[in-house]
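Entry: Glutathione ABC transporter permease GsiC
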Amino acid sequence: MIWAAQRLAVSLLLVWCVASIVFLAIHLVPGDPAELLLSSGGVAPDPAAVAELRERLGLDRPLLDQYVAFLAGLPRGDLGASLVDDYPVLDEILLRLPRTLELIGAGALLAVLIGIPAGTRAALHRGGAFDRFASALAALLLAVPVFVVGTLLVLVFAQMLRWMPAGGYVPLAQDPGRHLLLLSLPALAIGKGLVAVVFRMTRTAVLDMLARDHVRTARAKGLPPGRILRRHVVRNALTPVLTVLALQMGSLLGGTVLVEYVFNWPGLSTPLLRAVEARDYPMVVGIVLVISALFVLLNLVMDLIYALLDPRVRRA
């Protein structure tokens, strides 16, 4: 319990550090939100109107006062309101966050369903044709940027073959079939790198387990190969694979911005990009804070699971 409490305290400290850095960084970006909101057709706005809007939005207050007010609102879940349309930041995030998480979850599911079996097979047939082909394909998937893969998927499956729509979104409750169809291409685009990482990690972990003494002992006792593979090889190899999977899932939160833009998926990327362009401080800080908190929470959960699987971690 003491170890878990320490990890929780460190995680909260990390979230606070990220929130502070993002808050200060976005305020250092050149440009006045009030001027941007009042500008029209390239005509400079009236200075009096700009000053009045700055006062109404609270932008005329000292930066320290704005920072303290921001921190004071966090325990209440108050992330402020958008400077553009005065819409609560938290409501916007709660509306779009499930769509982004669904996209990440679908990509992670593909990585598990493809990467683990493929990595296991490649390790069992090390140096064979499948191993060489899968390893080369994994290297290629890691090298190609996600926006290139997304564009190629749209070009091939939507434009040339016309098997799938190029993008869009339909709620699951409204049309489950079309929802899954629209989800497939962006999930494949965002999950391609994770599939390669899980494949390579699984292959390495399985090869390491196959060389362990307890596996050789199980073979010497005449245990069935399938039982040895399930209970002594794959089961033990999954621990580092799950750790890497959790870390990579956190990094997918950043990759969703490009994928959602390419496939017109209404997640967090649209309000984030719009907020950065408009210098919408509360919206940018709120979205980045939520993404960072999810990343830290995911790693905290994996640390706890890892500690349950390996008691030596709690003593480290």
